[in-house]
Specification:
Length: 128
């Protein structure tokens, strides 16, 4: 059984920073893709960033977060991070981490349905 647990959310003022963590347990961390998504009430889950180990370490970002957010991973700890800088009120959302182990193409990583395992989410609130 794979467990995905996010942490690091909170309340921050606009222009501030937060670092989200996503810890994965229950399976080895060899060939995988990890994605961060976010969702606000009444809206669909939105792609934020992804890293594809099987794809040679390729990294992808949504246009809305490029230059502000950075995804990274610590394979020794089976953990993926999302460093969020220059936060804006429109970044306010419930942030989810997701994992896909095998059988994917990098061009599908922006789609929530690609992923097999999800965490429960961590709330990020950015005040103006």
């Amino acid at each position: 059984q794979v467990h995905v647990v996010e942490s690091g959310g909170g309340l921050v003022q606009a222009g501030g920073s937060l670092r989200l963590s996503c810890a994965v347990s229950g399976r080895t961390f060899n060939s995988y893709a990890m994605g961060w998504f976010r969702q606000t009430p009444g809206k669909e889950r939105e792609f934020v960033a992804a890293t594809s180990r099987s794809g040679g370490g390729n990294i992808y970002y949504a246009d809305s977060v490029k230059g502000r957010f950075t995804i990274s991973s610590d394979n020794t700890k089976n953990t993926v991070f999302l460093q969020m800088n220059s936060l804006k009120p429109e970044d306010t959302a419930l942030y989810f981490c997701a994992v896909k182990y095998v059988g994917y193409s990098d061009n599908t990583l922006v789609q929530p349905r690609t992923y097999d395992y999800w965490g429960q989410g961590t709330q990020v609130t950015v005040s103006s």
